[in-house]
Amino acid sequence: FPTRRSSDLRAIAFSFCIFIGNKTSQAALWRVQLAALYLELDISLRPEGVCPTRGAGERIGRKTVEDYRTIRGTAIGEYEEKKSRFIAQLSFADSEEAAVAFLEKVRAENRTARHNVYAYRLREGNRERYSDDGEPAKTAGTPALEVLQHSGLTDLIVVITRYFGGVLLGTGGLVRAYTTATSRALEAAEVVTVRSVVALDVT
Asked: What pTM value is reported for the model?
């Protein structure tokens, strides 16, 4: 790794901060890219960004995380069978607190619904949770979670609200309904890849 002056490191760190503060600045992006080439680093930015501290730099600290795929924001998918409506709402959630908060929000908005089934996957601790919320075991939350698993996405939650139409669907009908609603929400979602970050620590 080539040795650079502290003034070089400060300039790189400052350019990086400008880019994070103003994502529309093409010039700032060019500065970050040129700095990356200059120091022979492979810099990729994740959505929230990282801004190093400015100061008299003596060394560069490198911190990387494994790339992963998730969604941006929220998405909705619907399915109807025999007058029962299944509304799947998908949301980005990078912690259990965020997942539970979204679940409670959906519940509050659909108080008259018969069921609010959910499933979520988190990178943190490789956690996976689901609930059938009163539906027969393994006919609702389990198929929803399996759809999320097969997608390869993480840090997301799906809540499927069912408004009962008066006709029982049976085990196969329920599995099909919750699977289809979740799949449609995923199809409507914007999938993003969060790439590795190189943090420039200037101290």
From this structure: 0.67
C-alpha span between 155 and 52 (Å, rounded): 25
Q: pLDDT per residue over 60-114, tens digit each?
A: 445 556 789 999 999 999 999 999 999 999 999 999 999 999 999 999 999 999 9
Question: Three-class SS string for the chain?
Answer: CCCCCHHHHHHHHHHHHHHHHCCCCHHHHHHHHHHHHHCCCCCCCCCCCCCCCCCCCCCCCCCCCCCEEEEECEEEEEEEECCEEEEEEEEECCCHHHHHHHHHHHHHHCCCCCEEEEEEEECHHHEEEEECCCCCCCCCHHHHHHHHHHHCCCCEEEEEEEECCCCCCHHHHHHHHHHHHHHHHHHHCEEEEECCCCCCCCC
Name 91's bridge partners. Answer: 74, 157
Give the separation between CA 63 and CA 114, rounded to whole angstroms. 47
